[in-house]
Amino acid sequence: MDRQTTGQLFAGAPTTRGLLRHMGVGSGSGELEIQIIRALLEKFKCIYNLVIEPSTYQIDLYKKLVRNNKELSAAVEFDWRQQTLEDYIASDDGRGRGEFDVITSVHTIYYGGPMEYNVPYLFDLLAEGGVLAIVLLSDTDSLSQVQRHFLSPSIAGYRYYTKQKLQSFLTTSNVSHQTIDVPRFNIDVTPCFDYSSKEGSLLVVGKATYSINKKYRQKI
Questions:
Q1: Residue among 132, 220, 121 nearest 176 (CA)
Q2: How confident is the model at residue 210, as a pLDDT?
Q3: In this structure, which CATH number among 3.40.50.720, 3.40.50.150, 2.60.15.10, 3.40.50.300 belongs to the domain 3-186?
Q4: Which of 53, 89, 94, 165 is least surrounded by CB atoms within 10 angstroms?
Q5: Residue 100 belongs to what H/E stretch?
Q6: Mean pLDDT for the stretch of residues 78-89
């Protein structure tokens, strides 16, 4: 996400508190979440950031980013939770309701249980005027089609959710929401499927990879 997009997303975030409380769902290595935090720091001097991430490796990368950034270390209190959203929900004693000003889920809604349960739960965690931002692909996106055909069947716990599915659920549930379409980028991946090219030679050779190459080469 660029600065303009993050500015649009959090334009309505509460501004009455001195301390903003943020929850990151599936924060990963922090590279994307740090961009969000920086945008929030333009409006708030102090931020409490609850990081929910099941991977120790990703959390270590995130912590390294923080250590190398004095601005973040000084202005943001990080609360590291090595757990999935499902684990967090299971350990919830109800005291966190209405606690967070901003909750972000960047390409993580595909994991961690049914969207129909997790999205309302996250809404309940928001304070008055809080913002829940969910970033996911559109079903018209070519990468989304790759996920549907190749990732959905093989990854345990993966659910093929798209912008359209989320919009339909929110509309049916009478939840007021706003959609912001971020700029799309066109990437020519044709050389990846040409064995004689530098890009094609970098592919891992195997039965699955070969069948994908063969399918696309017939169309080229």
A1: 132
A2: 38
A3: 3.40.50.150
A4: 94
A5: strand 100-106
A6: 93
